[in-house]
Amino acid sequence: MRPSPTLHIVCPTQKRGFPAFMSVVFVWVVASGLGNGWEHDQSFGFMLLTVGALVIMVLAAWALYRNFVFQDALYIARDGNLPSSVPLALMVHDIRAVRLLPKHEAWTPEGKWDALGFGQGRIEIDTATHRYHFGIGLEEHEAEAALQRIIEFCREQGIVAAAA
Q: Which parts of the chain span the membrane according to its record (predicted)?
């Protein structure tokens, strides 16, 4: 049996409740805080407060997007052209090492970003020029299975990608 020329893994969306709840709370607090204040106060300070409120709303929308729409995708090819539609597309001969990073503890800054849906994937792919993170939205057993698929694909192509 001939090895497959490509490996394409797409992670499921995160669908975490905490970021959705926090986004709704942020938008509610900002909207109720601003209320009809523009009619009563058109000062420079209120304009700055309005800009800050818009930034918070953009962050809330980004959190909702990252948790309910965004899907992390990886495409590894043996040869040929890489698709431009996949943000993380690599040639198999560029991969030097692949490893599963430990899960961040909840009290660390990285753990808090993960809880809000802004974290990076736990699978680290090391190339000669860059380290890529993949696997946003994968549970522990799914991340381990994806790591094994990547390592097996590299071995099928004759590349020994060490699991560092």
A: 20-38, 44-65
> Where do we find the tokens 């409740």?
17
CA 119 to mean position of chain CA atoms: 6
Cβ–Cβ under 8 Å, residues 94 and 157:
no
136: buried, middle or exposed (CB in 10 Å: 19+, 13-18, 0-12)? Answer: buried
